[in-house]
Design goal:
Blueprint (H helix, E strand, L loop, with lengths): L4 H4 L6 H14 L4 E7 L6 E9 L2 E8 L9 H29 L4 E2 L19 E8 L2 H9 L6 E7 L6 E4 L7 E4 L1 H10 L3 H15 L4 E4 L2 H10 L20 E3 L5 H7 L1 H10 L3 H16 L10 H13 L2 H17 L6 E6 L7 E7 L8 H22 L5 E8 L8 E7 L5 H16 L7 E5 L11 H9 L1 H4 L19
Parallel strand pairs: 3-5, 5-8, 6-7, 9-10, 11-15, 12-13
Antiparallel strand pairs: 1-2, 1-4, 2-3, 6-9, 11-12, 13-14
Helix pairs in contact: 10-11, 10-12, 13-14
């Protein structure tokens, strides 16, 4: 594709669309989030307000900013607003779903239908559709009349506009639609701000609310707090109950105020602080994405965006807690290795299905080679180290390599590489063995090659006041030690400031 996607992407027409775009690009990143996509019918009709495509997940957003009627009859005002803001948006979502599944190759980024949607859509049998309806302007009126945050109540026995400020099933016989208001939109996209964390919540919520059991909650954020505090047998967040819920006909979650308590908890505050370092991983993905969009990537194995997207999809599939661990590992590695030295760090999977990561730090010394030659050599060396990982760990299926300069500052370059090593041949093994032998003879494998298996708690242990005070009393000696709050920063740059 000879189109600069960096400048060809729509920014949104309305303030609401631009704000939704900003939130979604923060959470899902720009590679997979597209505002204002069109079909190939006639001059091009808008399919939906925003479309997210990631792996086999498709998230369809419809965003409507309809003013809540200022009339005395609250029930009538609700019904009028619901018809414009919810019912009309639902029709758009279901229409978008039909078009996407029937004509996946007829979706465009512009109304003239000249710029095709850059990411291949999954086949219909693999596709998981998530429908999200963003309805503005009711939150303020809901808070004014009922108090609280303004988040709309949830009652799965309700169909349509049957009850004031309550969302149930928009259409009884069609797929479930998540209806978000101004309050819940911000909360969800700022709390579940990776594609994995977000779609996991959507899937668990859909499963929970579409059972033959009536569920009532005082708001989306209260439902979210219930989800975040419970873990199922697969070590995943879920809606978990001690009793067998099949014996119940209805569940009323006693959850009002639980979100506010969660926000004020020491565990949540520690989590937010610890997560700060994780956004370096997001920044790395966005750096690669912008080079792909503008066509400035160095030495691509393919000019096809879908081929390049595969690498970034592995990076973006990591949830927020894993990104924290990956960022800590990479940044601490960069800080630790002195200028002029070369080193690698292999990060083993946390669980089955995770990729193996290879981090390579390689010094650039201008008197020995040009920067272009340096990038070529660094890329070849990164590929060799990835092959050696497969040799050392035969069960590896996916290997991601990331390389940069040793002791780099704000300026530098990054290489990313993905190798699918499932079909590993005898020829591949012979090559990897010869490369390993050659690198060992040159001293490129040894103490400079480190192996890690990262473990990261979602909610860090809370350091006691005494621990912090002990560090402060010995600040001169402890200033460069990891802060006891587990933020990943040095003490002098965290709790020691």
């Amino acid at each position: 594709m000879n189109i600069d996607l960096k400048t060809s992407r729509s920014e949104g027409v309305t303030d609401a669309e631009r704000y939704l775009k900003k939130l979604c690009e923060h959470s899902f990143l720009s590679m997979w989030s597209y505002v204002g996509v069109f079909n190939g019918k006639g001059t091009g009709q808008e399919v939906c307000d925003l479309l997210v495509v990631f792996d086999n997940h498709i998230i369809i957003f419809s965003d409507k900013d309809c003013e809540f009627p200022n009339i005395e009859d609250r029930e009538l005002a609700w019904k009028r607003w619901y018809k414009k803001a919810v019912k009309k948006s639902a029709d758009q979502i279901y229409g978008a779903e039909r078009w996407i599944l029937k004509y996946p190759d007829r979706i465009f980024l512009d109304q003239t239908c000249k710029i095709p949607f850059p990411i291949n859509l999954p086949s219909p049998e693999r596709t998981k559709i998530h429908r999200i309806l963003v309805a503005h302007s009711a939150s303020a009126k809901c808070a004014e009349i009922l108090g609280g945050s303004g988040s709309l109540m949830i009652d799965t026995e309700i169909v349509g506009d049957a009850q004031l400020f309550t969302i149930g099933k928009v259409e009884k016989s069609k797929g479930y639609i998540h209806v978000l208001d101004d309050t819940s939109l911000d909360i969800l996209l700022n709390t579940l701000d990776t594609i994995s964390d977000f779609v996991n919540y959507l899937e668990k919520k859909e499963q929970f609310l579409t059972k033959e059991i009536a569920v009532f909650s005082t708001g989306e954020e209260e439902l979210l707090s219930s989800y975040l505090k419970d873990i199922n047998g697969n070590d995943e967040h879920d809606f978990v109950f001690e009793e067998d819920i099949r014996e119940f006909t209805a569940i009323c979650l006693d959850d009002e105020g639980s979100w506010a308590k969660f926000l004020q908890s020491p565990q949540r505050k520690a989590q937010i602080k610890a997560n700060e370092i994780s956004y370096a991983w997001d920044g790395l993905i966005e750096t690669f994405t912008q080079h792909i969009f503008s066509g400035t990537s160095y030495h691509n194995s393919s000019d096809n965006i879908n081929d390049q997207e595969i690498i970034l999809r592995f990076l973006a599939r990591e949830n927020r807690t894993r990104r924290r661990m990956l960022s800590k590992t990479l940044l601490e590695f960069i800080e630790k290795i002195p200028k002029g030295y070369r080193a690698t760090r292999t990060l083993l999977p946390s669980k089955k299905g995770d990729p193996y990561y290879v981090f390579l730090l390689f010094p650039y010394i201008s008197k020995f080679m040009s920067y272009e030659d340096y990038r070529r050599v660094r890329g070849e060396l990164l590929s060799d180290y990835c092959c050696i990982v497969k040799l050392n760990y035969p069960d590896a299926e996916d290997i991601i390599g990331i390389a940069t300069e040793t002791a780099r500052d704000i300026y530098g370059s990054e290489d990313a590489m993905y190798i699918n090593v499932r079909a590993w041949t005898e020829e591949n093994i012979i090559y990897a063995e010869s490369v390993k032998s050659e690198l060992e003879s040159k001293g490129f494998i040894g103490k400079s090659q480190q192996v890690f298996r990262g473990v990261e708690k979602e909610y860090p242990d809370i350091p006691s006041v005494n621990e912090i005070e002990d560090f402060k009393k010995n600040k001169g000696r402890m200033k460069n030690q990891p802060c006891p709050c587990q933020s990943g920063k040095k003490f002098e740059k965290c709790c020691g400031t």
